[in-house]
Amino acid sequence: MESKEEETKKNKNTNIGAPKNFLIPIMLLHLRDWNTHGYELMEKISQFGMESVDQGNFYRLLRQLEKDALVTSEWDTTSGGPAKRIYSITDAGKQYLDLWAGSLSQYQKMLNQFFNIYNPFFTPLQSSSTKKEEED
Known about the structure:
With 136 residues, this protein is mainly alpha-helical. The chain has a single domain, classed as Winged helix-like DNA-binding domain superfamily/Winged helix DNA-binding domain (Arc Repressor Mutant, subunit A, Orthogonal Bundle), CATH 1.10.10. The protein is built from six helices and three strands; from the N terminus they run ααβααββαα. It has helices at residues 4-13, 23-33, 38-48, 55-67, 91-118, 128-135; strands at 36-37, 71-76, 84-89. A three-stranded antiparallel sheet has the order 1-3-2. β2 (71-76) and β3 form a beta hairpin. α2 (23-33) crosses α3 and α2 crosses α5 (91-118). It comes from Psychrobacillus soli. Residues 28-97 form the Transcription regulator PadR N-terminal domain. InterPro entries: Metal_resp_DNA-bind_regulator (IPR052509), Tscrpt_reg_PadR_N (IPR005149), Tscrpt_rep_PHB_PhaQ (IPR014091), WH-like_DNA-bd_sf (IPR036388), WH_DNA-bd_sf (IPR036390).
């Protein structure tokens, strides 16, 4: 029988290369294109496909990214209503995003190889507009 320590070590080894927190690069990716407040950023991330974002965890993660100097924030008092924090990506955040992009590219290659072996006749689902363009 395996001890808990051996089982934990075994589970860690089976998760090689898997993204640990995919929310971070998605946040940085959106902040790369525009400065925004947290609520709007959370909406964009939901539209991206991450539907079940825990609001408390989201704001803790934003504060941690700020502590790590990957994002900065400042209070916006120009709009009506309560002041809002506007978040921006830093140069260090852009470099971190570049690292994630490289890692995800490698991960994508592994996924492609997996599906090529798993089902050599597998083709990704295409949007109706892509299918229409191919038919023309």
